[in-house]
Structure formats: C-alpha cells, structure tokens
Amino acid sequence: MFGLGDLFYEDDSSHSTNSTDCHCKQNNINVYGGQPLPASSKLSSGLCGIYNQGATCYMNSLLQTLVMTPEFRESLFGLDVKEIGTLTKENNHKKVRVIPLKLQHLFARLLLLNAQAASTGELTNSFGWNKNEELIQHDVQELNRILFSAIEESLVGTSGQDMIRNLYHGAIVNKIICDQCGKTSERQEDFLDLCVTVSGSNSLEQSLSRYYIQTETLSGNNQYRCGSCNRLVNAKKASAAKIRHLPPLLTVSLLRFRFDFQKQERYKETNRFAFPLQLDMSPYVEDVSTADDTVYELFSVVNHSGGAYGGHYTAYIRDIDRLGHWTHPNDEDIQVAPDPKSGKVDLIECDSPLELIQVILNKSPDKGMPVDTLCMEINKQTGVSWNKRFKGRYGPINKFLKKHTDRFLTSTNNYVCLHTATLSNGVGRASTNNSCGDTKPGTKEVITTKRTRMRSPPPEAGYCWFHFNDSRVRPVRTKELEKLYSGKSSAYMLFYRRTCLQRPPEARNSPEYMVPKHLIQLIQEENQDLDKERLMYEVKMNMILIKLLFPQLLTLKDGALQTKDNALSYVELAVDKRKSVSDLLQQIEETYGELLFGGFMVHFAKLLPAGIHVYYCVSDQQDKVIADMEIVDNGFLLVWDGKQINGDKIYMGASNEPILVAIICPEHKQLNHAFRKSLTVGQLKHEMCSLMGQDPHKTVISHVAATGDDMDVSQLLPEHQDKTLDELNITNGDRFLLEDSSDKTKPRILFVPSFWTADLVLDISVEATEWKLMTVGELKTKVLSEIHGKGLEDCVCRLRPEDDNLGLLPPVPECARLCESGIKANNKMVLERGVAPQTDQLCLTFTPDKPDANQQNVEVMISGHKTIGDLLYVIIEQAGKQGTDWHLRRTNWCGEAADLLDDLGLTLVECQLKSGDHLLLEEGLLPPKGYIKLNIELYPAAVAKSNYVDVLSSLTKGVNGLVSPHKDSTAGKAPVNLGEIVIPLSDTVEDLKLMILTLSEGDNLLVPTIDFLRVRLVDEGQLTTVLKDHKQTLQRLKLSNDITLGVQVLKDEENMSNNDILLEIKLHIPGTRAYLPSSELIWNTTNSTTPDSLRHAIASHLSLPADRLIMAKYYPSKYDWIILEDESQHKNNHPRDKKKGHKKVNLKQAPYYIKDGSIIGVKDLDYEKENLDDFSTQNDIDGKERHRLEAEQRKKRREQLRAAATTLNSGFGKGHKEMAIKIHVDNFR
C-alpha cells in the first residue's frame, strides 16, 4: 500500500483553517435524553456531502470531483473483489488493496446513502493517517498527484493498473530547431495535470498560449549547441512545450501562490483569471490531424477561499449523470438544526449570511426589524455574533444589507425589511424607488412593485451545477462560476472532460449504475440502520416524563397542597407528546387504575414555593395533542375527581396562586402560611388573626418587604381593605407584622443584636422604623447607656460584628447607618477598645514577620485611596523596622502567603483590598514594575547516555558489584548559588541566558555560546521545565518573582523546540531493586505522543530492540511507579474500555502527564523474567511505609478529637444546640 502519511506532513504550523468554514461534525451528539443524534437525511439536492475531519476540506473537494466523474467512478467500480480483496475473515493470507477498496465503499455511500454527509475516516485510515494529519491542511493539487500515484501503486497487477494513465495522463514534447542544419531535438514528458500561471494572464486561453504557442529565439549568450553542427548556433524553441497527447479527462492547476522576495513571504494572486465552460485545445496540440477530439467541457472547479497561509476549499461540480435534484437557489430549504436542550428547531446553521438574514426576517410578523434587533437575533439563534462569524469576510452588517438591495430594503432610521421579490420567492423585483424609508417598526406596510421579470429558466439536464462545501451541497447557477475568476475565493483547479464522451441512457438518474451488488446491499443495510436510528431518536425526543399526583398522596396544609409525610410524593408516567389527551387518559387508566375510583379528571399543576397549585382541566380537551397543552417534561398532572381533596375545597387557576408569607406576632411567634393572591386585605386580616388567635378589631397589620439588607415597613390602611394581594404586589417571602393597636408602648422587635462584654450580655431591641435612620454611633451610645455605671463611659471603644463561622469581623464606621453597614437581624456585636474607622478607611492587619513566627497581628487603618507605597511606609514605621528593603504580600483564607503587592503606585481600592484583609511584611526590595527577580543556581549536568553494553558484559561475567544500588554521578551534589538577577519580563530566554553569564559566579562557566547552557525551573529542589525557544519572552513563560532557576552546562549544543521533552531514563538492574546511573533523553513529540513512540526513542537511545523494553513513570512524591501501556496493552488490561472505541494513549495527558524532568524506568525483557510490573526500589518501599504510618497517625488524631468533642458535648442536655467558640472580648476594667 502506498504510504501517504509522511508525504502529507507539513512542519509549517501556520497553515490553519477557519473554524467557521471547516465544519468538523461527524458525530452530532444531542444532549437531550442522552440520545445520539442520527445522521440527517439528504438535503433537497439529493447529493451527499462529506464530513470535515478537522482540516480535510481540500480532500473532500477532490473526492467529490472524482465521484462525480463518470469515467473514474465506473472504472473504480469495475475492479472485481477477487482482484482487490476484502477485509473479511474469508480473505486470510490474501493481499488486500485497501485504498481502492475503501474508495469503492466511500463512493457507494456518496451515491446511495440516505444521509446528508458521509465520513472519510475509513479512507484516511487506509492512508495511514493519524489524527494529527486530519488537522493539518494541505494543497489540493499536491493531493491530486499523490492520491493518483497511490491508486496506481495499489492497482499494479490488476485489470485496473492503467486506469489513471488511460483517463488522466497526457504527453507534452519540448522541441528545439537548429537554424543552421534544421535538425529538431525533442524531449517527451508525461503529465497528470497542466500547470499554468495566473500572474500576467487574464484568462486560461492566454496563459495556455504563452506556454504552448509562442516561440523563443536562442541567440547571443543564450545560443544552443547543436549535435550535428557541433557548435553553438541560433535556434528556435517553444517557450514551454507542445501537447502531443491529450487525455480524456484534462486537469488544469492554476498556480496562484507566489513568493515575494522583497517581503520574504508568500502571497496569493487574486487578479482576474477567466476560464471557459468549453475549451478548444487544438491550438496547443502538436498535430491536430492525429489528435483525438480536442474540445473539452468544464465539469468541476475546486476553489480556494483565504490567503497563502490557510483557507478553505470547496468544489463547484456539474451533475453530468443527473444524479441530483436541481432547484432554484431561492427555493432551497435552509438547513436548520434542533436545539440540543429543548429539541425545538431554532438554531439556524447557515453558511450564507444572505439566507440566514432572510430566515430571521421571514419569522418576524412584519418581515422586518431594526438592525440592532437583527444582530441580537443572529447571536441568539446561531450562538455567534455577526462580527465574529461574518464581518471578516462580508464586512459590517449595514454595508452588507445595502449591497443586497435586491433582497432587503433599509431605511434611514436603521430599519430593515424583506424585499417584495424575496417574499414572493423571487417572482418579481420591487422598484428601487419604493423604499421603506418611512416605514416604522411594527407597521405592516405592503411594498408594491412597478415592474416584474420572470425567473431565469432552470439549466439543461446534465448541465446543472452544485456547490459542494464539505457536508453541505446546494444548487447554484452557472453564472455563479464567474465569481471564481478573482478575489480571495477563486478557482484553484479546473477539471475538463471531452465532449465526445457520451453517457448511456441507463446511467441517467441512476445512482446504482455500475455499482457492485455487494456494495448496493451493504448501503441498503446501512440505510435501514439509519432509518431505525431516526425512528428511535424521534420516539426518544418526543417522550416526556409526567409526574402524576393522586389525592391519596396529598393533603391541604398551611394554605396549599402538600405531599403527606412519609408518603410517596408522585408517580411517574412516560408518554409520547405527539399523542392526544385521550390517549393520555387511557394510558393513565391502564397503568394506575388501582389508584382511581370511578370517573376521574386530570388537571395541570405546578410546584410553587407555597406548595402544589392546580390550574386548568386537561381531560376536557381530549382531541388536542399533548404537546399543545403546555405539558412539559417533568411536569405535574393532578388526577382526581375535580372537586375536593380529602374533603377540602381546592381553588384553581392563575388568579388563585398561593403566596407563601411569614406572620409575626408581638410574642415573637412566627408562622409560615400560604394565601391566595386573589384575597383582599380585609379577608387576609381575618384569616391571619384566626390563625394567630388575635382579635381582628384590635389588630394592626404591617407589610414588611425585604430589599437586600434594607427593610421596607408599611402599615395596611383601611383604604387597602378591598385591594387584593396581587394588586399590592405581595410576593413569596414577604412578612406581615401583627400588632395590638391598643398597646402603644411595645416596640417592634425585629432586630435583636447581642452585645458581649467580659461577663455582660445585653439584648438591645431596635424598632424597624428606627433601623433605616439609626447610625452605628447612635447604636453604640444606646449600648453605653444600657451599661451605665460599669465604668465604661469615658473609654474609647467601637463595635465589631461577630460571625459564627468567620469569627470577629472588621469594625464598622460609626457614621454608617445600620441598614447600610452590613449588620443584619440577630447579629452578635462585640464592644471593644479602639477607634472606629472613618467611612473611606480600611481596617487591615499585618504580621511583621513570617506567619509561623507566632507574632501577634498588628492593626492598621488607612484610607482606601492611598497607594500600596503609602501603606508599606505606614506598616514599616508601625512595625519598628529599619530601611526600605521591605515588601507586602497578601494571605489566603487560611493565612498562608499568597500574591505579592508589587505595584506601589496602585491604590488599595484598585488592588481590591478590603477591611479585614491580612498582609505579611517580608524583607527584600521588589524589582520595578515590569521586572522580576530570579534566583540562579548551578546544577551539574546529567549523563548523556548510559553505558548499557558494559552492564551486559559485567552481568555475563557474574560481577556482584552490580547488585548494590547505583547512584547518579550528580546525586547528592548540592547546587551552587550563582546569585540573583533582575530582568524585564519583555526579555527573551536568550537575554536571560546572556545575563546569567554576567553574574560574578558565572564567570567560571566556560560556555562557548548560550546553546551550551540549559535553564530549568526548580520546584521543591527538583529540576523541572526547560525554558525552550530563545525568542520566547519571560512574560509568556509566566515567570514570577522569587522563583529559582537551575542552570546546567552542557557538553554539546542544545536548542530544544516546544515539542521536545527532556526525560531522565533509568535502566533497571536485573535481579535487584536498583538502577544504573540515569541518563538524559530528548524525546521529540511532533509526530506522536504514544507509548510506542517513546519506546522506540528509548530503544534508540539505549541501542536496544524496542520489543524488549517495558517502561514505567516514577512519581517521587508518592514513591510509586505507573506502567506506560500502549493501546493493545490497555485493551487487554481494561476490557471494559473496548466498548468506548479505539483511542490512542497520549502520554502528555492523564494519567501519565509526562513533561520535562519526568523519570522513566526501563526494564529489558531478555533479562527480566519475573515481577515485570514492579519497578520500586528499597527507598520506594521505605517511603510508602512512612506514608502509611503517617496516615494512621492522622487517623488516630482525628478519632481522639472526635471522642473529646463527644465527651464535651455529653454535658449538655439532649437536643442542646452546639455553640461555636467565641473570640475573647477586651477587659474594660
């Protein structure tokens, strides 16, 4: 089989595709119900597209051209199974020609499969491609040559070995005629396609003339040496060649990509280059009399959209055999995808913005809307805004709308509507004088037409053109090919076919023509499977789960229907929403007949905060479809007699929805109860008083509504008596306060903060009306008046809230109002010594040393508008420190060191500091903004390669010294500190290496160039990531202050790429728990990151056969090894994963996470016969034992703490609520 993988690889990563253009949706998964979305049926064109595997649009365009080429398609189908073989079990020990076989299968699917698109996965697998190949875009002209070469190689020795040559190969001849003797020298060459330049030509005929008609005189310094004359002579030479033989199928490649030597970059020729629908090649043929028919017809154009470094390929193909159904482009159905969540059709997938806007405007009742609304609809229905999806290609939306005046009418007030011609499917064209300039949004103005024109007739049979854009195929007019003459989206390959090639009548409108019977049967089975999947999907998508409620399960409680305690809440019933209500009633009776008593009714119900509420009767409309009754998935239906539940009357309808409110009475009792929102205030008062045992004539009701932390209290006056709760905007969660109107002395006790002093607890009541006006200072004064005589009148004190979980909170400014200070109902407050902060001040704490130094926190108050530099100065002065070589660092929620506050010019507010934050004062001067300080240490270089051959020879001689553990030559050597450097973040790795060499300790480093220097990150004393790519900036590498870098001096030059990984290889000594000294391996992961790729790299590194090696990765923190399994080993060890499909192991991902510095252990199967999975050393065994003992000790400590807590709580009475430990209060005595 011809190998395509290496030939298609490109090292230039700049070739990328537009994710919008290259759709990669081979397996659409609909999340709804976990049901996979089956392949869509063919579009109205009747032709099948091809899924894009990532960046395979170039291949899709070529394959669609080939399958629509009758001669190629029928020659391929003419290959017998006995010649190319099969992949069945009966074909054992026979050579299978996989590429032609998979091409046959793909072509059969494209012709006969009832699906919108087919997959090329099997074909690309036969090419030997991996997933990376499918994500790299290549040149379609290159693919055309390589694919044909692969087919020719695959068909050697079969009846089809000359298929490509007979169909596509031609011959050109180069001639030189001597002016002296008249001798003609010629050289004949075969061609697969004619390459013509676009630059300097306006048309295909002009470019062909330059190549095959014009002659050139060889004279002067460019004379020709004639063999007969034996000297330099003048001669005539054709500028390129003459065509001696023309193939039946002529391929023309347009050379649009060129190189600008001044700018040193590639660019694409987008100038006009016309090509004819019918091409006469007789002027370019050597001898017309001996040539076959020289007239060709265009039948395919592969175009390229984009630039020289990436883009998108599509194909315009003429349907020669009338296999598709051509419709007028305006009549073509817009492809619409279902919403994955709801299953409804509202997400439009249109590659053409013209069609997208038409669909959106057509849905509007007025066939128009403001442009701003149109943009929102595009974003809402497609999930992508106009600017992101279309602006780069089509420009701003206003410009686009004005460009298509035949479809849309725009007004001066930025309103757009559909043209009359568009509304009538293009039958008439509206007059341009009749614009919608005076049309206002919401008006239904009819736009009349002054003149009409008939639609252009459909193309002649066999001359209908279709646009193949990956998975979508749509009809196009022949005139649309003229758009491919120039521009960013322009023709790139032309395919012509001799006009004398006539098609038999039986081939017309017959996709099965010449298709082998076994392939027809195969596709028929696949169509049957697709039909079953679509049927199952339709059933699954239309199945909803209804929750049925029965009176036996319900009770009327607190004003609303509730489920009974310790009873089943509801029963479930799965129904098809396409069925009628009559079918639903029958299904309920058949399934849950034992719960029914006589006749029954079904009502729609909802679960509200108050409980279950009944709305309308469903069973009265038995002819309606369930989907039209607002019955949704997981909705509720009540099955009952329609009158009462357990003797209680049930109020129904939206006007009687229950509202859950809280009733508070003066005795601090609170009751949650639901009331109908149709109740009047007078009725509500009587019902509340009845529930709370109050006299309605002596009771005043006040409504308490919560607005954030604020409370809005309003008394319900007599004029409110006839208003309903709905009219008063009463909502769930509101509260009503019941007060005795005859008692004027009792305050409204809504907020009860508690104030704690040494041994004194006070309950201070604040009226709700006072809450909005009282300040924190006034509250403090009230507290001090309550404790008069305790000797606290003259002390300076402040209030601090206390939270059960967060502890003591920052002090509150005294000028702040209670409703704005964050103090909530029933807050505990602490009265302590100290000055209260001002409104703009922040109360911060800091530790003047390391967090573990048992230093007491120091408080500092400073304005939030001060800078970090001001704060640092204040803290240094307050801590009694000397000098300015200090900096501040944040702490996290558990007090550990976090981010540095390194920008001294930012304010505290800009740094998002807030009251209560804790900071650390650390020694050391931070570098300026945009700079970082790095610690540099010198590490010894590791061994480049293990001497494995010497080990083998020593083993064969029985040397016992190898049994003892080997230590690395670098192990145990402490790194040498070279000093610190301050470097800008904008500097590169190259600048960093040069600066390291300037250190005083670095003068001893004998390094010819920086390529002999390796720089790595140091994490917990271990060398990890290598800083690669000399042009990479330190900011992009995300280096931060005070990190340590390890430097190694190498014996050889090294310039690692981002795809290289530096590994430490340890070779196991057979029969021991020890390893040879480690060696370094640079593993290139450009082509593959699988275990098999790593195994071959290690085998080459150790000079051992790959099939003898078994590998494992070492995790030092866990003292554990994990075996690196390839796909076959993974399947054998994890048989359950076979159902998940074939998936290659990526060592960069979970669970391996191989990166720079990873340690890989290696065993040689020739010497290791037992314990192949055991890579552990004695140090690993001891380390795991230490971890086990530490885990047991932690477990014992937790059990002891749990037992102590149980003993402590046993002194409280049964059911006593646990109290959190409180923070000590200052002693005021």
Automatic annotation (TrEMBL):
GO terms for biological process: protein deubiquitination. InterPro entries: Papain-like_cys_pep_sf, Peptidase_C19, Peptidase_C19_UCH, Ubiquitin-like_domsf, UBL_USP40, USP, USP_CS. SUPFAM superfamilies: Cysteine proteinases, Ubiquitin-like. GO terms for molecular function: cysteine-type deubiquitinase activity. GO terms for cellular component: cytosol; nucleus. Pfam families: UBL_USP40 (PF25822), UCH (PF00443). Residues 1181-1193 have a biased composition (Basic and acidic residues). It comes from the Eukaryota. PROSITE patterns: USP_1 (PS00972), USP_2 (PS00973), USP_3 (PS50235). Residues 1175-1196 are annotated as: Disordered. Residues 48-499 form the USP domain. This is USP domain-containing protein.
